[in-house]
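ARCHIVE ENTRY
Sequence with per-residue tokens
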Amino acid sequence: MFGLQNLQSVVGILGVLLLCWAMSENRRRFPWKLAIGAIAVQGLLVLALFSLPPLRAALQGVGLAVDGLAASTQAGVAFVFGFLAGTPNQPYPLTEPGALFVFAFRVLPVILVVCALAALLWHWKILVWITQAFGVIFERTMGLRGPPALATAATVFMGQVEGPIFIRSYLSSLSRSELFMLIAVGMACVSGSTMVAYATILKDVLPNAAAHVLTASIISAPAGVLLARIIIPRDDAVEQSQAYDPLAAKKYDSSIDALIKGTGDGLQIMLNVGATLIVFVALTAMVNNILGVFGDVAGAPLSVERGLGVVFAPLAWAIGVSWADAPTAGSLLGVKLVLTEFTAFINMGAIPMEELEPRTRVLMTYALCGFANIASVGINLAGYSVLAPERRSEVVGMVWKAMIAGFLATCLTASIVGLLPAALFG
């Protein structure tokens, strides 16, 4: 049933669109048809995925596949690291079973395995067909021309820098609007490897976590396209149709070659994620220690998380979160933007079930599921400097705005989910 909280999410939808319109480089060219179409596509996709029995069963199958993948990964981790992987056969008595969940051994290795598996599926052309299918959907429904549509689809599965690799030879000829759109969509989505990692983190506190994470990344792509087109409207004179063969962009000599190269790529991502988390969590702790000098304020010590909760609480409420949960949800949004979505998901996974409403957990899963954070600004600058060095100055000028667009895109997605009846996700 619909309630006031569902209508509350309308505030989030309108607020996000208004903020992007305020940042627009041409406010007179608001893409009304695209806005209506993109929001309708998102809503219909969520309704279809969670209400149609075959698709709902498929999503539940995704959850089982994620559990199987995690279990298989743990077998490999246990073989290399032994009892440190959290196996039942511990050489000492356990006083705290939760201590067996070590992020470095339970989550990061999943990224490694998924990257290798993705490379193998690409070599077998399975992932190529899926990506091309989504590319056609984006091209037909959102008016994208071939190469950007393909890169947008690839970004959903491969990641914010990996997606544009597939159209590397076309990056120099993209319009400014298209280039901005690719960066924004990259920050609005996550990669296949991190989807599985997030589902692993949330599976004990969010029913059907894998289905929500997968849905969040897919439906945030249209939101990213929409908000990017609002901020930098399309250039009809430049954007002409171009054909493109994705198989020419990424090739493997054999299945073994795909596994080896995929594992190498996964290792780099795993090390980057781990190193980024160490640095950003350490910096946050450093700032919190400095703030601790001022003592308690309003009954609690000052902290980065508390400050972010105050700043982003209104946005969390607009998405559809109850005001009681808004400070906590706002803190998660701020942590995602200033630190990383990994840190935000870890924080949400650590919140006891009784301290956060089920609706809040669902909405925040969609709002947090994107790469829009300060670290991604550096990742995009480094990536596009290699992929399109002649356009580096353009990327420098738009990457921060793209981060905001990607952040707001996931908030828009969460607002659309909040507009739908809660029984749909039961």
Summary: The two ends are 12 Å apart (CA to CA). The mean pLDDT is 80. The chain is about 70% helix and 0% strand.
